[in-house]
Here is the input.
Amino acid sequence: MSHFVSNKLKKIELGDGEYVEIPTDMSFEDSRYLGTIKVTFSDEFDQTIQMLLKFIKNWNLKDEDGKEVELISENIERLKMPTLVKIQEEILAIMGMEGKKKPEKESVS
Here is the structure.
């Protein structure tokens, strides 16, 4: 077992032969990068785009005409929500944040 991140990529199959590839591990540098992303309520969307651009290393997604599209923020913004959620869930899993829920408030009797 190594204590360093691997260069391996995980392929997330999206159907019809399309996929995105993300790292299998997150490094200290990745976590530092995420910590520097400016987060306010109004730019939570921008934070998501920046995270996706950082972690998606490759994709072969196609537009409605069947042409491969470039991995850029404008194309990430055009993703359908189920696709976006699937990719985000996989990224959160490598960050060790999968299945994290806000704690429920205790009821006072």
User: Anything to note?
Assistant: Confidence is low (pLDDT under 50) at residues 100-107. The first strand starts at residue 9 and ends at 15. The two ends are 50 Å apart (CA to CA).
